Amino acid sequence: MTYSPTSADVKKLRDMTGVGMMDCKKALVETNGDIEAAVDWLRSRGLAKAAKKADRVAAEGLVGVATEGNRAAVVEINSETDFVARSEDFQNIVRNAAQLALATDGDIAALAAVTYPGETHSLKDELTEAIAKIGENMTLRRAAVIEVSEGVVGTYVHSAVVEGLGRIGALVGLESTGDKAKLEALGRQIAMHIAAAKPMSLSENELDPEVVERERAVFVEQAKASGKPDAIIEKMVEGRIRKYYEEVTLLAQTFVIDGENSVQQAVKNAEKDVGAPIKVTGFVLFVLGEGIEKQETDFAAEVAAAAGTA
Question: Residue 297 above 50 pLDDT?
Fold first, then answer.
C-alpha cells in the first residue's frame, strides 16, 4: 500500500526546508514518511539547497519585454550576480516569463503559477530548479502589461544584452487609428524618453497627492526665506509647482528626442504624419533592482573569515 503523507507532515517538512508543498509530499512518499530522510531526499536533488538561498538579496538580473499585437508585457527577474544574468539559461527564463506575462494582466501570482513552456510544472518551479542548478537566489519580482484597443504599445529596452532583455524596460500605450508603422516609430521614441527621463506619472492628475503636498511644503519654506509678502510667496510656490509637474509628468516633460517640445506637443505634432489623433493611454518603466536594498559586504573580511584568520 502506497504511503499517503498527512497535511501536518507536509507542512512540517515545508517549514523545515522552505520547499514547495508538492515536492515535500513527493519526498515523504519516496521515504515512507521519514521526515529526516525526506529532508535528505530534497537536499540530494538540490531543492532544499535552493530554499536556503531564498534570504539572500537578489538585486541583479534582467528586465524582459515581449509584444503581441496591441499588447506588451514587461517583467523583472532578479539574481544575485550579473554573471548569472549573462547566462543563456537565465536569459531563457526571463524571455519565457515575458511571453507568459502577456496573458496574465501583470498579476505576479498568476504569472508564477503559469505552466512553463515545454514542462508540466510552473514558472515558479522552473525558477526553483534553476536556483538549485545555478546556486544563486532568483526572484520573480514584478510584471506589468499595457494593452490598447487600437494602435500600438511602444517598447524600449536599455542596456540590452540580447533582443528584448536588458537593465531597463519601458512600455507606452498609443491609442490611434493611424498608420501603424509610424505609430510604432513614435512609440519607440517615447519609450526611449521614458527610460531616460523616468517620469513619475502620465500627467499631474495621476501624481500621488501626498508627494505633491510634500513638494509644496518644501517650496513654501524656501519661498518664506525670501522675506517677500504672502501674495508673492503664493505665486512663487505655484510657479515652482508648475515647474515640478514639467519635470516629473510624462506629457509635460521636454521630449528628449527633439529637446524643444513637450511630449504632449510632440504627440500632437505627429498626428498629421500618422493621419489620425493619438492618445497616450499610459506607460510602465522597470529599472533593474530599483528599490531593492543591496547588501554591502567587506570582501576582504569574508576571505579572511573563510580562511580562519578573522
Answer: no
pTM metric for this prediction: 0.76
Give, in words, the CATH class of 60-204+250-287.
alpha beta
Region label for 18, one of left (φ > 0), alpha (ψ between -120 and 50) or beta (otherwise)? left
Packed helices 35-44 and 21-30: angle between N→C axes, nearest 10 degrees:
110
Predicted confidence (pLDDT) at residue 249 exceeds the cutoff of 90: yes
Task: Give domain 7-55's CATH architecture.
Answer: Orthogonal Bundle (1.10)
Asked if residue 245 lies in contact with residue 253, where contact means CB atoms within 8 angstroms, the answer is: no
139: helix, strand or coil: strand
Amino acid at residue number 293: E
Please give the CATH topology (third level) of the domain spanning 208-248. GTP Cyclohydrolase I; Chain A, domain 1 (1.10.286)
For the chain, which residues make up each domain, given as ranges?
7-55, 60-204+250-287, 208-248
Helix then strand then coil, in percent of the chain rounded to 5, is 50, 20, 30
Query: Among candidates 59, 65, 107, 77, which has minimal Cα distance to 194?
Result: 65
Amino acid present at 70: N
Show the cell assigned to 24.
515535500
